[in-house]
Amino acid sequence: MNTQKLIFSSSQRGFASVLIVLLVGLALGGSVLGTAYYLKSSQKSLVASHALTNAQSGAWTGVEVLRQYLNNLDGATILSLNDNSLKLKIQDGRELNVNHIAATQTSTSPEVYQVSAQVQNLSTRSEASSTIQIVYEIRPDATSTPGEDNPGGSTSFPEAMNFYGDLTAQGGIHLSNGDSERAVINVAGNFTANSISGIKTLNVIGDVNINGAGIQGLENIYTNGNVNLNGSGSVKLISAKGKVTTGGSWSADDIYADQDVTIDSSSTFKTIDTKASLLVSGNSNITTATVGQKITVNNGSIQKALANSDIKYNVWNALNSAKSGGNFTCVGESWDNFSSLSAVNFTKCKQPSSKIESLSAGTKVAFPTGAIATVTMTGKPLVNAHVYEQQANYVFDVDSQNRIVVYVRHVEGIEDGQYFLAKNGNLWGALCRTVESSSNKKETDPTCTSESVTNLQHKNLTWFKKIISYASGTWSLEDYQKEITSIAPGVILFKGNINIPQGKYSNTIIATGNINYGGSVTLDAPNYAGANTTCLANYFKMPTNLCRSKVELIPASIGNIALLSGSCSNSSSLEACEANYLGGNITLGGSATIQGNIIAGNKLITGGSTNIKGSILAAAHTSDKQSSLGGSTNIDFDGKDQDDTTIIIPGGDGDDEEAPSSGSSEKAKIRWARYI
């Protein structure tokens, strides 16, 4: 028995070890499989996280692009976004979806708008998407009044031309080599022209009257008044709160109006939308007409007509479909050149017909939009030359003895203070502290009795010509040559009127009165002239408020100004300033050449061929405020970005030495955001 037991025990020897090994193997296999599954899950999670991160980054890019888009809209355009969708184009040709837009006005004084939207980025490469719900607050007039974003109360004008009175352009306006976003004319009064090229958008508060055939590149007309187009030309969009009348061979993609539209031209129109009536007399083809009142067609054709009142189709031409909330009058009972007619009543139409449908009285069939925008301009700027005295390097005036005195500021090596403009030996144009009058009756200019601190005229010229002179309230800058800079570069301010018949200048020229600028003159504003001319000018002292060094400019906005005119003694309010306004007119002679922005306190008048590289502002501070561009006026932005061409009218004392040259503020701000 004992032997058998020992044999049985020996036969089972090693089974426990095998079992243990098997269990350990199973555990190890499970661990390996678990580790592999974990690694695969982690990889998927990392890929998904990376994809989501890219999608979210793209969505936030869309949030900023949308904010910048809202930053440039006026109130009416903001409200027009309500219940619409947008597609945002970003880098690499990608598009982002903006859905569920809700736009409301939350305040009228000041204007404040709130826009909420969902910005979605779909990434096909990473198979991921991200959607951000965002709420913006927009203040369209943020730059026109002082506030937390704009403590100086300055106003900026980034567009090409801004006129606060009427504008007549009989000789033509041409914008060449320009950024299309800056190819804009803003007019607070009426606009009349016979030749335009290169202008993208007209924003006019009054009426628009365009005649002639020289209309090229005009895309948009927005007006609070009437639009009258004659001659020939084309435009993509017209929005008018008044009437629209076309004659000749004008055409437009879309016309939106609050009042009557009259088409008397041989052209093609895609959309005509008016809250009033439509009259078609010209041989034009209209794709769709949506009219709040009646339609009368005496010539031409309409593919689709919708009118809440009567429709009179007095031509035998084809008509695809029409709906009238009143009576539809056919050209004759034999006319059958249509697909479908719907109206409350029919006159002279072939009946019965399967293509004719009777509507119930009072049926409304048209829902016109009318004008799609209201033109607004920022609060009228107050242009006062006296504001710039603290920034001027040389301020010219006369004392009680009719001697020319110059107050010098911000000039290297010259102590700020008052100096006389006098003769130093045989040299004209010297600045010195003390002078004595000549005993020679033929000699009217004083002579320096103290050391001269500088000479304002180039030494090669001062032997022969007195460039700066004064008589009876009017200054004169006149130099017979145009090869070298005539006077010291920098900001110069003249108290009175100034005539500039000829010469070469690298200055900001400011006058408290009017400026008459001749044809044989070349003027470059300091920032346009560059550091080599403004800061490193031979013989002349460096203006320290415009130059950091001999080779580097300070981007002060005043250095972008070429000409500025007009002043008032009481600038406590716009009304007080305009009650005693002096000057403000700038007149440019034929073949005038200017690089820099032009600011007229009242109006601008050009003649002949005028070439301007910069922007224009005419503030219309007097009753005689109609600007006129004659001959041809060429605005050229080639090589100049918006920092150079944006006009800034400062508040306070006008000292903007440290201000950014763009002068812009953000009107649209993000108030709330979340992922959804």
Secondary-structure topology with pairs:
Layout: H1 2-11, H2 15-70, H3 75-80, E1 86-89, E2 95-108, E3 111-123, E4 128-138, E5 155-157, E6 161-163, E7 167-169, E8 173-176, E9 184-187, E10 191-197, E11 201-204, E12 208-216, E13 220-223, E14 227-229, E15 232-240, E16 244-257, E17 261-265, E18 268-274, E19 278-280, E20 285-291, E21 295-297, E22 301-307, E23 311-313, E24 319-324, E25 327-329, E26 338-343, E27 345-347, E28 356-358, E29 394-398, E30 404-408, E31 417-424, E32 427-432, E33 435-436, E34 447-448, E35 452-455, H4 459-462, E36 468-471, E37 474-478, E38 490-494, E39 497-505, E40 507-511, E41 515-524, H5 526-529, H6 531-534, E42 547-549, E43 552-553, E44 561-565, H7 574-579, E45 585-588, E46 593-595, E47 597-600, E48 603-606, E49 609-613, E50 616-618, E51 627-629, E52 632-636, H8 642-645, E53 647-649, E54 668-675
